[in-house]
Amino acid sequence: MTRPAFATARRTELFDALTGLFLAEGFAHLTLDEIAARLRCSKSTLYTLAASKEQLVQAATVHFFRTATESVEARVAAVAGARDRIAAYLSAVGAALDPASDRFMADLDAFAPAREIYERNTRIAAHRVQELIAEGVAAGDFRDVHAAFAADLVTTVMVRIQQRVVRDNTGLDDADAYRELAAILTGGIQA
């Protein structure tokens, strides 16, 4: 049995609102009653999304990364050339993380199931960068570099950006840090 289109649209709308709330304010301090009040829905409506607050946080985290991935890939698809595709990818990742408050990132880091989702998505992003580098090497746009090493380097920096270490050490916000990473990476492997 499939869900009616309205139910799917309403669920997406609720997850969008929930994700926006969590990104702006974090989630550890919020109760289900507070979340329901903020989303202007009942607690029973929240229970249609997940069976507990912890599962709701996990589902919202998955929703955030799924939505971010779709946005990032749309930006990559809109450009041509290996250098521009990597720059678009990393810049779009930074833009997707812009709404994430320090409180959200701290809550994410402190809640193991959500942190695992974040770490899995970072690994996926690093693999995607590796693919983009390999495509650029194959096309002759980049010199013959070890794509897995370059992706590992990117992963390390991505984790530091998302953990706010780069911002604390350099003053760069996430979006600017990703733009700098893109410039350094693509400049360093240019053919």
TrEMBL record:
Pfam families registered for this protein in UniProt: TetR_N (PF00440)
Residue ranges annotated for the HTH tetR-type domain, each copy included: 8-68
Keywords: DNA-binding, Transcription, Transcription regulation
TM ranges: none
Domain of life: Bacteria
SUPFAM superfamilies registered for this protein in UniProt: Homeodomain-like, Tetracyclin repressor-like, C-terminal domain
DNA-binding region(s) from the entry: 31-50
Molecular function GO terms recorded: DNA-binding transcription factor activity; transcription cis-regulatory region binding
Keyword DNA-binding: yes
Protein name in UniProt: Transcriptional regulator, TetR family
